[in-house]
Amino acid sequence: MKLVLTLTMLSLCKSFIIRPTTPFKPRSSLLMAGEMEEVHEKDLYPPPNPNLPSWRKGDLDGMDAPISEGWRTESENLIRLAGVQTSVEIVSLTWSFAKLQIVVQSKTSSEDQSRLVQEIHRVWEDEKTPEDIIDVLEKHELIVCTPGAPNVLSTQEQFDAYVGFDVSVQTVDPFKSNRVIEGKLVSRDALEVKVNKKGRVVTVPNEMVGEVRLPKPKTEVGDPFN
User: Fold this and answer.
1) What does the radius of gyration of the chain's CA atoms come to, in whole angstroms?
2) CA triple 172-187-19, angle to 5 deg
């Protein structure tokens, strides 16, 4: 069973971009100018790597399921159980595509975070754990981190609480066309964030979301509390 676990601070948690491991080879890279040679289909389209996880082959393999899906809830229960057994307070669990973010209490030491990771691994390897729940580890990277800035939405609970509020979404993508989308938060699930921008709903995949930030509170000149 392949297990990928990351310990990091929430402010450093970055969305990743899924890139194909076998790049497409254009015909121009196989044929030099003026040359005449036979180009085989296997050269243009290399066979798929059988070791790639199914989601890298275009099959979402259930990871587009609703946040309330049964296997997600059961997985969360096991992780919270691991938190109880290691005395680590788990603040929230947030699903993204192929990732599960585990936010722990801000004063949790790196040693305690490591113990939590080891306990999660042990619980998942327990012979009593259902096979479909064990399979979750093969689909998701687990990220253990502490809470970030208060005006940055990072947990599912925060996104649910601020639906209808003004937000700004900073995007990240491999083509360096990053931008900020401002509007009212419509929804957020394991795959994407939706924002209503002047009546038009803009959908941003979670892999391209750098951060979702609440606007700064408005203050008045001379306000003694600001």
Assistant:
1) 22
2) 30
SS3 content of the chain, % helix, strand, coil (to 5): 30, 25, 45
pLDDT over threshold 80, residue 9: no
pTM assigned to the model: 0.70
Token pair belonging to 111: 């040693």
Question: For the segment 15-61, what is each residue's pLDDT rounded down to a tens digit?
Answer: 333 333 444 444 344 444 444 444 444 444 455 555 555 445 456 66
> What are the angstrom distances between the C-alpha of 13 and each of 55, 60, 73, 185?
21, 23, 23, 21
Taking a C-beta distance cutoff of 8 angstroms, is the pair 209, 171 a contact?
yes
End-to-end CA distance of the chain: 53
